[in-house]
From TrEMBL:
<feature type="domain" description="Metallo-beta-lactamase">
    <location>
        <begin position="27"/>
        <end position="229"/>
    </location>
</feature>
<dbReference type="InterPro" id="IPR050662">
    <property type="entry name" value="Sec-metab_biosynth-thioest"/>
</dbReference>
<dbReference type="InterPro" id="IPR001279">
    <property type="entry name" value="Metallo-B-lactamas"/>
</dbReference>
<dbReference type="Pfam" id="PF00753">
    <property type="entry name" value="Lactamase_B"/>
</dbReference>
<protein>
    <submittedName>
        <fullName>MBL fold metallo-hydrolase</fullName>
    </submittedName>
</protein>
<dbReference type="InterPro" id="IPR036866">
    <property type="entry name" value="RibonucZ/Hydroxyglut_hydro"/>
</dbReference>
Amino acid sequence: MDQYPTLTKIAEDIYQLVVRYPFGMFEMNSYLFRGEKGFTIVDTGSEAKESIDLWKKTLASGITVEKLVLTHSHPDHCGLARWFQENHHVPVYISSLGYQELQKKRDNNRVNWLHNFLKSHDCPELSQNVVNSEAAAYEFEPDGVFEDQQTIKLGNDTYETIWTPGHSYDHFCLYNHNDQVMLTGDHVLFGLSPIVALWTENDENPIKDNFSSLEKLKAYPTKLALPGHGELIYNLNDRIDEMIKSHNYRLQQILNFVGSEEKTAWQVCQDIYGSLSNTKFFAPLMATIARLIFLEKSGELHSELRSGKLYYSPGI
């Protein structure tokens, strides 16, 4: 009988737990690294009951947890940090940038910023339930923080911390030079491109950041990449090239839709994704806005604020 029935063995002392939850991607890959002092867990899933039930079953199989490391501060990755601290006395580590993002997301003013931001882009009002649903994920204090290009132990092995802003400003990948293993979090996924968007008022040009971060990873020879969602990746650089091509396709698509006719972000979003329900529009819309901002900062589009709404037209 398998010693850890809920886990899939990926490599020597590396295990995967697919954590389910009822929103967004609906499941996330958590990775467990076995060491002499117990397992290091990377990312948790959300605070949903089905996620907690799976972790209870996993821990009941005899696992000792040394610590929890978080790649970034999105709720499907950090949602159970507080639960691990309070119920299992597990220390939690996140980047100093991630800790700053947590503090921003706890700020009530962020809701006002988000409301005004969406309004200026001609968007539907965001449901208060959507805004409130993430709040609990940010209510924890880390036991320690790490910086860019430091080393961190996952189990018995040493990994380099690599800052990869784009999907989120505080996103980090983790790389083992000896075994050429890369944890890519939500920066690189198999088969789909992660959403790159503005999540706080401090985000300036996440698409530009994302392009730079993707190119940065090419310098790390990688035999196995462990993504935050979906299948494992065995040809990381090829996958990065595919993602860059996909981003460029979307950017050209937006330029074609704007053409000679000025449009708001909401109109462009509907051109790309079709009709979206009140609960499904947020992520595609925020990604569309990020692309429009990239194109404007690149000089290919121009925006003008009229009657409280931003209209985009071809650059001058």
